[in-house]
Design brief:
With about 40 residues, the protein is mainly α. Helices cover about 80% and strands about 0% of the residues. InterPro entries: LPFR_strepto.
C-alpha cells in the first residue's frame, strides 16, 4: 500500500509542477514588465 501512495504522490507533484510552471512564467514575465506592480508578492 505504501508504494501505491508513493506513486500517487509522485504523479501528483509532477502534475502540480506542470500546472503551476506556466503561471510562474507568466507571473515572472508580468512582474519584470511592470516592475513591482500588483503581481509582486512577499
Amino acid at each position: 500500500m505504501r508504494t501505491i501512495a508513493d506513486v500517487f504522490r509522485t504523479i501528483g507533484s509532477a502534475v502540480a509542477t506542470v500546472v503551476t510552471l506556466p503561471f510562474r512564467l507568466v507571473a515572472k514575465l508580468f512582474g519584470g514588465a511592470s516592475r513591482g506592480g500588483r503581481t509582486r508578492r512577499a
